Amino acid sequence: MAANNIRNVLVVSLSRFFIERLRSSRIVAFIPMPLRIAPARTLTSRIGKTSHHLYHGRVSIFPRSIGKKIAATAGATGAAGAATALLGASRFRLAVTTIPMLDKGTFRGRRNEFRILHISDLHMLPHQQLKQLWVSELAELEPDLVVNTGDNLGDPKAVPAVVQTLSPLLTTPGLFCFGTNDYWAPAAPNPLRYLTGKKQKHSDQSMPWKNLRAVFKEHGWEDCTHQRHDFAVDGFRLAVAGVDDPHGDLDDYSLIAGEPNKDADLSIGLTHSPEPRVLDAFAKDGYQLILAGHTHGGQLCLPGGKPIVTNSGIDREHASGVSEWKDSILNVSPGLGTSKFAPVRTFCPPTAQLLRIVEKGGGGADDLPEPTVDEIEVGDGFIEREIVVKGL
């Protein structure tokens, strides 16, 4: 399939713009460390041979107060491990993936790609200024479409922060669906339930999700919660549909069942949690691309980004990034946040994804357009350098 030629470019860094603003605001302590380019590693993924090269921006972002508490309450080894996990929740990454999945001639000579910025699981708290600044500059990627797969809110008072953060992106056509954390405030997790894969219970406190939905819709984003939409972006025709969060058993696929519009250039299915029953339904109906979030990429992963659990019904191989799901392409966002009760990530950095949808080539990766630095540069020095390695 076309998925055999999927190429990933993973980029991690912070802009000088962010560093200057954050230093002046004194909300965190910055300890700059040398940037380094990791040795090139070629991995074989389940969807074919794909070259992965990582660019690491090493900047320590750690509140002094938290560091003191950790040092005072744990031994040196434990403190180091806790610090690493907390830092992992603030080292934001942009992942650029080129997916040759459209038939030749789909673009009708009008363009050579369709860019989708996929964001998910912000779990925003009002004080998270670093995250707010980082996400707001993603608008400089100039995507054709923004897709937000839910769990925006981490606190009932976070709606203004989410709106301000996403405001530069709200001028771009967008799609959204919500997760249970948009409806109900999070509850302190039970580690045993999490590690055994059992569903976590949410609190009974309602979140102001209707206010957030109103802002999204006012700016033209399409609510895909149990709805189907057909529209065009600069002549590129889309057929989209979505469900409410299946992790909370809020989904009813029968409300959107059926094949997507056959005249569409690309069909997209949205769900917050990548539950297999929903993925199967989208694939059976013929949706080409399915977008989901919820898993946080595992959040607590082993080296190499291997998730311990997925907090959903999906298997660990499909818990993060682009893969095949039957005859569809599935992308599960690793997300950009965590619950405020578990603000840690290990070997699974918070990530935004730029999906570059292109036509299928005749000879594989050599036919794919190169994602140049100028095309995807964000902010002042956000992407210091991009390493592109064609598929094998």
From TrEMBL:
Biological process according to GO: lipid A biosynthetic process
InterPro entries assigned: Calcineurin-like_PHP, Metallo-depent_PP-like, Metallophosphoesterase_sf
UniProt signal peptide: none
SUPFAM superfamilies attached to this UniProt entry: Metallo-dependent phosphatases
MF GO annotations: UDP-2,3-diacylglucosamine hydrolase activity
Ranges for domain Calcineurin-like phosphoesterase: 114-297
Pfam family, one: Metallophos
Cellular component, GO, one term: membrane
Protein name per its UniProtKB record: Metallophosphoesterase
Gene source species: Corynebacterium kroppenstedtii
Lineage of the organism: Bacteria, Bacillati, Actinomycetota, Actinomycetes, Mycobacteriales
